[in-house]
Amino acid sequence: MQLVENPAGGFAFLPGGPPYSAGVVALPGFEIVRATLQRPPPYREGFALIDRHLEMIGRPAVALCAIELRSPKPWSMEDFGVFNAGYRVELETRGILLDGTNPVARTNVAPAYAPPEEPSLYAFSYTIPASAAGRTFVIAGAGDLDEHGIIAEGQTSPEAMRTKANFVMDVMMKLLTALGCGIDDVTNMAVYSVHSPLDFVTDTLLAPLGSAAVHAFHWYYSRPPVIGLEFEVDMRGVRQDVRLW
Q1: Which of 18, 161, 195, 224 is buried deepest, with most CB atoms within 10 A?
Q2: Torsional sign, CA 52, 57, 63, 67
Q3: Nearest to 57, CA basis, from 126, 135, 137
């Protein structure tokens, strides 16, 4: 993967596909800020909220670099494609796409307890001018799926889940390197699964984090966005994580 610079947005990104990029990193002179919504609204209302927030702080729409969504339940591949097409329109109408390529990273998971009635905006990240040293980044959610299909498909035994987790963590480490970042830049990792990670928490999840293991990880009792997937992770390194009410 090769980074593509988005100077107007203040970040570079790893191209992914039409729905999202694989990850983003702030360009020199900028940093990425994450904003979490205390009461996640339907995602289209969420985009309007993002518009207002960016305008209030004097940042352009193209400063938006990452989105975190919550869905009512996992999608079929076909339905997921339909949703992604509608989601992409929200970016197109704001002029966020870069020569037709989507630069915005994304995580989209389905809470297994008290899910929303419709796809909702949980959090978003954007760039601001900054002079502090250090790199800030967001890696999009990645699940137990490769170009050949689902890893250990249909299996949820402890060993199968370890296999899935090993695969996903390997993806995270490769994306971290591709962004030009290192373990010391990581401030948070999130795990999304309805299966307990406790059987492999030290050797599979914490060991790859090295010094960043001091921050551990957040475990969300949620499912990845597509039916059949069982384990997803995303990762970020930010200095500012604000909460919007």
Answers
A1: 224
A2: negative
A3: 126
